Amino acid sequence: MSTMSLIIYEVNLKIEPEIASEFVAWLKQHVRDMLQIPGFKSAEIFQEESNEPILQLCVKYHVGSREELEDYFKILAPSMRAQGIEKFGQLFKASRRILYAIA
User: Fold this and answer.
1) Which of 53, 59, 73, 76 shows the greatest Cβ crowding within 10 Å of its Cβ?
2) What pTM did the predictor assign?
């Protein structure tokens, strides 16, 4: 796979209402921690508009290269992901995807 100039690593979150405010506060610090990882250039946190009580957030990380993202997956991803699970257990769900700029 060739190196692409722009990689978006997207994390989609569904958070139970009883932990929503605590989770958001934690997530802001977690994103700051992620931005200390080599290759992670910037990030935005978005809230999905919804009539459901579950808070739905999307974090978009801008990563310098696929290789840097792969290094993260191999070395740091398990511990970074475990932080949220240790703190909030099953009260949130996360899904992830990788996006490439094609134009």
Assistant:
1) 59
2) 0.91
Please check whether residue 14 is in contact with residue 20, taking contact to mean a CB–CB distance below 8 angstroms: no
Residue with tokens 């934690």: 26
Nearest Cα neighbor of 94 from 68, 48, 57, 50 is 57
Phi, psi of 48 (to 5 degrees): -80, 135
Q: Kindly state the tokens that stand for 55.
A: 């808070």
Task: Catalogue all structural domains in the chain, each as residue range(s) with its CATH number.
Answer: 7-100 (3.30.70.100)
From first to last of its 103 residues, what are the pLDDT tens digits of the chain?
A: 444 568 999 999 999 999 999 999 999 999 999 999 999 999 999 999 989 999 999 999 999 999 999 999 999 999 999 999 999 999 999 999 999 988 7
Alpha-carbon distance of 8 to 10, in angstroms, equals: 6
Q: Rounded to 5 degrees, what angle do the CA atoms 59, 53, 49 make? A: 50
